[in-house]
Write a sequence for this structure.
């Protein structure tokens, strides 16, 4: 069986395409792995954000309750002062 220059050129084209495809697949796998790691980091950050947000909402609720109690006490004190002062 004889091989011509044309056959060798075709073989080179096929080998080049296969090599290019293989290199591309390696790059895609690497990027997919990096994206998976980043997705895990994002999920972890979102979970932490949710926990911090819940904690902040709890603290805000407590602060609002304390403010409400302080305002009620101030109003009662003002009312007591007004009832004691001569008019």
């Amino acid at each position: 069986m004889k091989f011509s220059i044309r056959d060798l050129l075709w073989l080179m084209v096929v080998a080049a395409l296969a090599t290019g495809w293989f290199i591309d697949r390696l790059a895609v796998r690497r990027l997919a792995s990096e994206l998976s790691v980043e997705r895990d980091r994002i999920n972890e950050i979102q979970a932490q954000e949710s926990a911090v947000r819940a904690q902040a909402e709890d603290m805000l609720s407590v602060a609002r309750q304390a403010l409400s109690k302080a305002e009620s006490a101030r109003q009662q004190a003002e009312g007591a002062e007004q009832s004691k002062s001569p008019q």
Summary: Residues 5-84 form the longest helix (80 residues). DSSP finds one helix and no strands in the chain. The chain has a mean pLDDT of 94. Helices lie at 5-84.
